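# step 3/5: fold
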Amino acid sequence: MFLALDVGNTNITVGLFGTRDGKVLPGPLKIWRMFTRKRWTSDEYAVMLINMLFYSGFDAKEVTNIAVSSVIPQLNDVFRELFKKYFDKEIFFVSCDNCGGLVFSAENSKETGADRIANVVAAYSFYNEEEGCIVVDFGTATTFDCINCTGEYLGGAIVMGPSILMQSLSLKTSQLPNIVEIKKPLRSVGFSTFECIQSGTYFGYVGLVKELIIRMKKEVKVKHVIATGGLAGLISNDVKEIETVLPDLTLEGIRIIWGKSVKSDK
């Protein structure tokens, strides 16, 4: 079996994939999510991970390969130690150097996050590698990434995610409460402070996403728009420019990049 980890600022998503004849099959068998804890040791993460496998009916000893996309450099050594100590495996890290042959036209490819690399590789593969697309990933930060019809990564945009937006509003104001849950309000005109914040965040964010997609499609030659990330299903309901929501896009990108890298090594 193949294990893919997307280590994000808020959550770590773990996907377990099946294998056949040495190839990793698309579509994860199981997905787990846990909070990102930057102070945890490799032993603490190992307990969590091995227990998740065990209680879902999987044997950790059957994991043959591991690949990781991480945006938290200080955790890379933690996971490297974890998989060496408990799985006796070396892990593969997605990066601008290990990107499955992705071509960068952006000025500094080394600044591109591993999750963004995985997203555009998966999106390009999803459309049979024939048409360009935009990927909108709703995470701690919301990222917009463009890849053209020849498989060239063009760049994109980064903005605060809705959760950070709400937290910042509470931190920087004296009387506004911190609202954790983000949901679509019944109306844009709020009758209470709570409703006003929900409305401003949700409908304002919908407008932000629409505007960036429209501008990007004018500037670069792309045809499709894919959304992924925790709030993709919610926000995309009011953004007609988003055609498809693929919750497992990053994990699939990790799988694809690992597979291409293995082939190139051979």
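# step 4/5: annotate
The chain has two domains: 2-93, 127-252.
# step 5/5: archive (pending)
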